[in-house]
Task: structure prediction
Amino acid sequence: MQRVTVSPREGSELWQAWRRFRCNRLALVGAVFIILLCLIAIFADVVAPYGYTQIFRGMRGVGPSWEHPLGFDHLGRDLLSRVIFGTRVAIIVGLSASLLTALIGVIIGAIAGYCGGWVDGVLSRITDTVMAFPLFVLLVLLSAMLGPSLPNTIMIISLTGWTRIARVVRAEVLSLKEQDFIIAAHALGGRSSWIIWRHIMPNVLAPVIVLTSLGVGTMIILEATLSFFGLGIPAPAPSWGGILAHGRPFILMFPHISIAPGVMIVLIVLAFNFFGDGLRDALDPRLKKA
Amino acid sequence: MLAYSVQRLLHGLVIILLVCVATFMVLRLVPACPIEFLTGGEDARIGREVIAAIHARWGLDRPWHEQFLVWLNNMLRGNWGESIVRMGVPVRHMVVEAAQVTATLTGISIAIAVLIAIPSGIIGGARRNSFFDYLLTFGATLGIAIPNFWFALMAIAIFALTLRWLPPFGIRSWEGFILPVLVLATNEMAIFARVMRGSILEVLGQDYIRTAHAKGLAETAVVVRHAARNALLSVVTVIGFRIAFILSGTIAVEVIFAIPGIGRLFMDSIFRLDYQVVQTIVLIMVVLVVVVNLITDLIYAYIDPRIRVA
Result:
């Protein structure tokens, strides 16, 4: 029994999920906005009017004009171009941290649930320990240890974010492994790794996809916050959080620097949240309670 | 119930210990040393012997496990140690002073958030799909999506710069508290209102509510006396966890508004690798989380006996 088929035919589960998703207008708007931002991120070099390190002499902190709709930053760089290149950082971190989070969560959750016993005990205590840290405190500690860079930021955010997925997967696997079709697979002589991959994974896929898509927004906020404190993406790379950090000392002189990156963060987080809500209602309505 | 309580308590202690070990290890793995911040690092004109003596003074020349055990032993005896970077100021003094500021700030914020969010969540859930409900859902969704460090910057730009109503930084007068409380309370309000609304919706769908309606009770009486009471439990849990995890939210606010609370002390200490201070703050936070966790677990187990057995 497989829940997800490759080609969406009329009446297949994937097709039904798409029909449910289509009805949710906010989720559709979110999806379109996400696709748009992905395109901007991929083609940032073409879309951005100037380079993100190009400095215009004598234009420090100058406000918006027709040629430079968002004005200049504290060094005289075109803010629109920097915000556009910042999309790239946000999308890369958001998506890759979410995928890595899902991967870690699924592996740990599946092993804990499937093996049980002391393995489960150890993995569950580790999960509890990571959950007991105030999230941002753990992020700051890890980032101080590893130093700020793009790959490190992705790794740090993933290392702290997998716990919810691991818990959900563990609970799902625990209930699945008692069911008849798994016992039958064992009786037929299937190896554990094969049973997990072929029979258990397809059945935990839906909640994992939903939780992952709902988490992208949080990942983007975390990246922005880390960069804001100088612990995320190092300058001169244009991360939205980094632009806000540079805007902060000038908030009383050039407040326009701090507006656009924040608006972009709010919009992208809203888009991913709406999209995730839509996916949840379409794929796995049981999660709605959580 | 007793066996269950003991088991949860033991789990809690294991978690506290693991968090302490993890924090200790991560701090020592940072490729720098707090003494460098005191002496000025490589190019300082301080003799090697002096630097070695400073290391010895703080026990940094001993092996890690020994350092950790000494620290743990001292903490258990109520001796929180001294700040390395601030050269001998007692950690207890620094932390208690900062904690009072943070407690005031978050206490006011959470109280305001609860007072506004719980009634609006109840009304939103009871009058589902009304104009008020849409407004509430919209506001809560936005409140969750806005990162609070950006909200803080915008609040300064609007209320301190443009309108000139309030001071942008510092808490020298009570007016200084208004903006940070606004930022923190908005975030908490969004979360509480959302949970309250969802919880009310769930309770309103149950049979005993229909019974209450059927026996002729007024709508208000059903919602307030029957639904809200049962719906509150999940909200109280969330409030407990938000208080326990408050540091995640206040760090940015305290740094931006220059408030000398725990969040800022934590950031200052980590940037200068003040081992004792960071370890103490993390320990306090984790104890808080574990205690809240324990209380909620026990309350739920008390209410629902099925949990105890599993």
About this structure: The first helix of chain A runs from residue 13 to 23. The domain at 26-52+72-287 of chain A is CATH 1.10.3720.10 (MetI-like fold). The mean pLDDT of chain A is 84. Residues 13 and 233 of chain A are 41 Å apart (CA to CA).
